[in-house]
Structures are given as structure tokens and as C-alpha cells.
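Forum: Protein Structure Q&A
Topic: Joint prediction for protein chains with partners

I've read a bunch of threads here and the consensus seems to be that you should model interacting components together rather than docking separate models afterwards. I'd like to see that in practice. Below is the full input, 976 residues plus whatever partners are listed. Could one of the regulars post the assembled result?
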Amino acid sequence: MKTLIKKDFDVDQEVKKVWAFLLQPELVVDCVPGVSIDEKIAEGRYKGFVGMKFGPIQANYDAEIIYDDINEDNQTIKLMGKGVDTKGMGSAEMQLTLRLEPTDDGCHVDSDMEIIINGKIAQFGSRLIQNVSNQLFEQFVANFTKILKGYEISEKDKNVSAGGVLKTVFKGMFNNSNQEKGKASEKK
Amino acid sequence: MENIFKCKTSPEVGGMGHSVKRKEDARFLHGKGKYVDDVKLPGMLSMVMVRSPYAYAKIININKEDALAIPGVLAVITGEDLAQYNLHWMPTLLSDTQMVLPTDTVMHQSQEVAAVIASDRYIAADGAAAVKIDYEPMKAIVDPWKALDEDAPLLRPDKEGQKDNQIYHWERGDRAKTEEAIKKADIVVKERIYLPRIHVASIETCGCVSSYDKDTGKLTVYLTTQAPHAIRTVVALVAGHVGLSEEKIRIISPDIGGGFGGKVPVFPAYVVAIAATFLIGKPVKWIEDRSENLVNGFARDYHMDCELAATKEGKIQAFKVKTLADHGYTDASANPSKFPTGMFSICTGSYDYDTAFAELDAVYTNKAPGGVAYRCSFRVTEAVHAIERMVDKLAHKIGKDPAQLRMENFIKKEQFPYKSPLGWSYDSGNYHATLNKALEMVGYDKILKEQAEKRKAGKLMGVGICTFTEVVGAGPSKDFDILGIAMFDSAEIRIHPTGKALARFGTKSQGQGHETTYAQILAEELGIPYNQIEIEEGDTDTAPYGLGTYASRSTPTAGAAAAIAARKLRDKGKKIAAYLLEVSEEDLEWEPGKYVVKGAPEKSKTIQEVAFASYTNFPEGMEPGMEATHYYDPPNLTFPNGAYICVVEIEKETGAIDVKRFIAVDDCGNIINPMIVEGQVHGGLTQGIAPAMYEAIQYDDEGNVLNGTFMDYLVPTAVESPHWETGHTITPSPHHPLGAKGVAESPTVGAPPAIANAIIDALSPLGVEHLDIPITPDKVWEAIQKHS
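Posted by a regular:
Agreed with the consensus. Here's the joint model:
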């Protein structure tokens, strides 16, 4: 099942600082709830783990994270993640593209995320995938902004927020255009 | 429901036409039904299947180690293991081949890849999660329209001579004549109609307990099957080479919690469970979970391009339909051998015209196999939907009332037996009377007036009609077989010395109420009270051979067998009665329950007295006892019909559909138990609104099933069901011994087009001409937006 999420948001930090941050996978991964890096296998390639809950089921992916394309001229960075569930429930692929642009008071981030989920998660959780992904992405943005501002992120921030997921799921049930609204509110 | 059938027996005897309470219900209502999962044998092990997360992938490696390391896990069985015994492939009912377990490639999501056997189900499930399988996913063919593209990968290279993904091409009728008629016609209406994949969603999932006794050499399999004898023969044929012989195989089909066609096929896990009990020497239980049940097997999935030609007055002249059938990765359709498309050629409907052509291309895709006859009498649902939508479309096109158009085109009652343009011989019917009754029940003129007023007020109200002809009771041995076995069915009756009886059948009830209806048939024929007759089915060691229960065939075949076997006993009884009364046989007359001397009504012998005498005091030279068997080979199929009318209102703002009225008038010939028929009709109608408004198995581009739970796969409940208004006309089948025709599937066949026609009629003022089912509120809302 393919899910596309587009989001853009502003960070009140210099583009340079944000760019430098993005080049450090350990720090970036720390912002994504449920994801950890275990080892570096080669330049730009890392082995890690992704744990996620989609409604009734938990998926645990042994994942490979790849810095696919780093284009400093365009200030664009492409991250790929690929994983197979440790209990044979299927696989997931993620491609995240981030583009940075300087603004008067910091940096504007344009992002595209494409997620392909196969197997039992797609079967059980197709209605939840979009919402869960949205929620994770929102948490990512929040953590990302927090760290850049110099705050530490707590264990709680690193865990998938169950309440938040439920909220987005319910929002999704009653409002199909929640994605659009989320976008608008982040733009402010 | 009114009872318009004239009963010949007293309510105490409870023969045909009496709404006696179901004998089986006490145990069901008390929770005492015994299903496969209730079977617990000493030392029994549990099996869980490991299933593919991918729709199409190469298997690189299967690692059993971690699973086998779990305490309690006894075995992990893979395709390679089965290949050693040449058991990794099996034939399907339509002589295609299906993997039991794969050795190198998986062909659909959730296909069985390995089996884990453990001391209990929880450990088996942990074991299944610990089997490590490396796959190399490949691009799946999900869209059947792309299956025949030149660059489409060949899905079945294992099949010799298979050059593309076409399974077969089928056609019937006169193509040239039909195309000519369409070319010359005043009016031609066209539409592509899709009936999506749906699931039978029976309450009980599939399962088995397989037990091999080394000492006796006997294999006993408790199985959720609608056709125990056929399964026994299939097992003997498939596993004969490993030493399984048919007399050593016993299939027991205990209580079944709904079948609807989904329990006709042989599922791979059944075969693995049988192999496992052989290998391990202990009984092995496998019970499918709900999601496994929901993603495996399917019904429908026909894309039909229809053309209906008529004069400008609306006289139908010709019908043409070209179908693309998506069968998944193997053709495991549950159809008679000579009818790969089932009875689809009934698609010319209830109308009198002589020109038609139907063709069908079946293709392989990376989806689950199945093609079960989900309460549809072998593809009649698809056929009826096609013709009934097209007839409505024609009516709208020429501006004629759809009821009127149907009346003008109906086959007239004096035309029966009627030879249909695609070769069926309709046995009987009075279509005008059936529709008239439905029109009367709904108050058609008043409803149309109300509709006109509502439309004036800007409201969306629709009236939809479906006047279908069903074809059931497969079938005559000259045409009908499954894997070569003729589709007769059987009854065996034993009357005990005290006048009570035991009867056994080759069919198998899954909730239809056979224990009651068969007893009523025997009560009708023999005069023994229905509640003194025990009915047994489902055990191949005791029941006579039969092809089972599906496609509304039990009453047309086994019901007929019961009547004829009973008549054999009545003939024998007559000889005994004549002997006891010291008269000649010609002097005796049969009245329900007794033999009476003509002209001397005080001189008679009851069936009970005669039964006692058959064991104690019978004529010299006569074989003692009262036992008879009959294997009934039907001379023709039976053709029930019905007229259904649906009235809907649609909320413009939300697309919400409110089914205001639903009238179902069925003609299933003579009725055995009106209450049971009514129950069958209610259940069938609910299973009719299901595909019309709710159900469809959804796939994404990668071949993932997206609604694999009841959270997402919507099944209507009592809340969604409208109040069903039912009625009957009775046109007995001229060739069936009881004049009965069968009813179970009529409502499932007839309801969807009536609902679709009603919704489309409601939207027709906006210019909507067609919507495919399921017609959900969002589909309606979108149509309203598009046409506003």
C-alpha cells in the first residue's frame, strides 16, 4: 500500500545549521519515533531498527537506512529506508525528500514522504497507515525543531505517542481532508 | 409469509407445507452444536500456516531453525518436504493445478508457505512467526486487464504449453447472428458492468482435524466441507500414490456454521494436515483465523461488457456479453467440469427472444484462487445482474416503465418448457403472475406517484425491479459432473419396527435446516410424523454417496431422492398391507399414513403397523425389513424465478442510501417448509444487499488485500437490513417428484440488481446511467457531484 505525505514547515534556525544537522543520521534518526541506528555499514548506509504500531499490530522492521542523494547545491537530501518485519509480516519502504530554503527568519523545509507497506500491516491497518504515518511525521517535525533549538528530546518524545495516534485516527475517520488541514495549520 | 401451499398432512405429521419448527435448532440455540473446532482428540496437535506477505515473490530461503527451537514445536513443513512425496501440488475442481505449499514462488498474498505443528495453537503461532523466509518480491499482476498485455510476466510457466496468462476462452450462442441483430436494431444499450470480488464471510471459518490410525490404517478427517464424499474421492485420487485407499478414508463433516460455497474447495492446509498426521502419527487440528478466511477464496470478479438490442418500442431482440474473469493464480472455481463459467449462460434472463451470444476470457493474476459459487448457483448472480441492469437501462433509454417493459418481454406461461437462446430448457414459470404480485404488494402506482411528487420537490427517490430466472439443482449426469463424478444425489431410508425412521443423505446442511425439511418430505410421502424421523448427513462411512450441498441443489436432487426412496417403501408396504388385510394390492388406496381398502374405509393398516409387520409378519418369500435407497439423477435442472422491487431514497447532501421498501416475491415451486423458505429468503436478501451496498475485497497495486478484517470488510447486520416483505407464487416443477425447485440462492441472485436499479433510478434525473456495486454513499455522493 502506497502512502504519500507532503508537508512543509518553518524552522527558526539558519539553513546552514539545519543542513549540517541533516547530514548526521544518528541525530536525524533520533527525531523519528520508534527508529534507531545500530551500525554504519558503509558511507551513507546504516543498519537499524524500526518499531511501529499500526492499530492492532506491531511491526518490527530490521531496516537499512540509506542517504541516497545529498545535493548541497539544491539543498536537497533524499533518505531511503527499507525493512523486513522480523516476524515475517511483510516489508516497508520509505523515501523521504527534504528541501531547504532560506527565509527571513530561518529556514523553510519542504518534504515529501512516500511509504510502501506490504503484507499483514497493509491488510490489517490500511485505514490506519496514512494516519499513523502522519502522526509520526508530525512527531518527527516537533522533535527535529526541538533539537535544533538546542533542547534535548525526552524518551517520551522518542516513543510513538499513542494518544496522538488515536487522535489522528479519529480525526481521519471524521475528516477525510485532515492531511490538507494539517498542512495549512503548520504553515501558519 | 402467507401459506398458499395446500397441505395434505396434519400438522402433527408435519408433511410438506407445514411451518414446523426446525429440529436442529434446540442444539444450536443451547450452544450444543458440534463443529470441527469442538473436536478434541487425545494427543491432538495444532497447526498454524505461515503465509506470504507478498503477492508475487521468489522464495530464496526458508529457515526453520528458530521455530524448531521453540519448546513444543514438533515440525515445520515446507513445499520441499511435501515434494519428497509428490504432494506439493494438487488438482483444483476445474482440473487446474494449485500449490499445496510452494517450493520456489509465491503467487498471492497470504498464500500458505509453510506449516508449523506444535503441542498447542499458541506455540504453533509463535513457531509460525519464527520461521524465517527470505523473499525476492516481484511486480505482481493485480489488474486483470493487464494480465494479457504482451509484456506481462508469464505467471504459470509451470504449466506445459502455457504461453500467456489466459486460462481459457469460452463461448456460447451465435456470434454472427447476434452481432448482425445488434447492428440492425433501432436501439442498442451498452454498459461495462463489474461484479467485484467478495467473500462468503461464513460465521465459522474453515478447518479440519486430521487423524491417522497406524494400526487400522484408517484416516479420519473432521472437515468443514459442503461435499464430504467428493472430498473423500479427491483425497483418494490425490494421495493414492502414498498408500491412501478410499475405503480407509473417512470424512466427517459435523455441524457447519455456514458454507455458501466457501466450503466446497479443498484448501492446501487440509492436505498439509493430512500429510502431517501421517508423518507425526498424531491427530492434527487446523482452524483458520478470521483474517486468513477473509483473504483466501473469493466469489464473482467478472467484468462484463453488455449490449442489449431492441426495437424502439422496447421489444428485446438480442443480447451480447463479453466477460473478463479474474481467477487469481489458479482456476479453482467450484463449477461442474463441463461448465467452466458455471451457469452464466442463463444471462438471457426471463425474456423471450432468440438471439444471444456470450463469451468469456479467464485470466491468471496474483490473487487468491477460488471463484466459489457464493450462494449464486454457479455464476447466476453475475448473469442476472448483467441482464437485469441492461433491461432497466433499456427502459430508461426509451422512456418506458421498467415493469411494463418486462411484462411485454416475458416468456409467457404457455411457452414452457422454454428453450432459451443459449440452450437451457426452462421447466416452468408464470413470470407475469410473479411480477404482478410484487407490483400489487408494493402498491406500484402509488409508489410511482409518490416518486413523481418527491422528484418535483427535488428529492431523490428510486424504484428498482429485478425479475430473475434462476437455474439450480445440478445436475443431469449427461452434462454435470465434478472431476468426472456425476452430480446425482442420494437418500437411504430405514423404517424401524416401531414405525420410526432413520434417513441418510449424500448432502450436507450448513444451516439450511435439512434435518427438518428432509423429515418433512418423508412425512409427506410416508405419513410418519416428521419428528419421528432422524436425519443424518456428513459421515462418509454411513451416508450414501452424494455430491453435497451447494448451488441450491439439495431439494432438487436429494429431496427428490428422498421422495422416490419413500415411494419404494410405500410400494413394498402396500404388499405387506394387502397380505395383512387379506386383499389384493389393487384394492388398496394410499392415504397419508395408511393403506385403506377401497370402499371400506374402516379396513386399513397404518404405515407403523406395516413397518412392524415387515420385521415380524411378512409375506412368504419377501425380503424382510423396510429399507430403501435411491440415487436420483435429475432429468433437468429446475428454474425458480422471482420478482423483486426495491424502493430507495437518497440524501443529496451525503449520498446516504435508505432502503425504504423491499418486496421479494419468489416462485420456488412447491414449498416444503414455508418458515424455512422465509428464513432462507431473509438471509439471502441480506446477503444480497451486502455486495450491492457494502462488500468488495480491495487490492492495492502491489496485491495487498486492504480490507482483511471485519473492521474494514463491511458485512451488513440486522441494523443495516431493511424490513423484508416476502411473498410467493407457486409454479411446480413438472419434472421434480415433489414439484419443488430450490430457493436458497434466489434472493442473493435477485436482490443486488433490484437495489442497483433503484439507486440508479433515483439518480437518473441527474443523468446517472450506471453505477457498479457496491454502491456506497461515497460513490453516490461523487456521482451527484459529477452530475450536478
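The longest strand of chain B covers residues 316-326.
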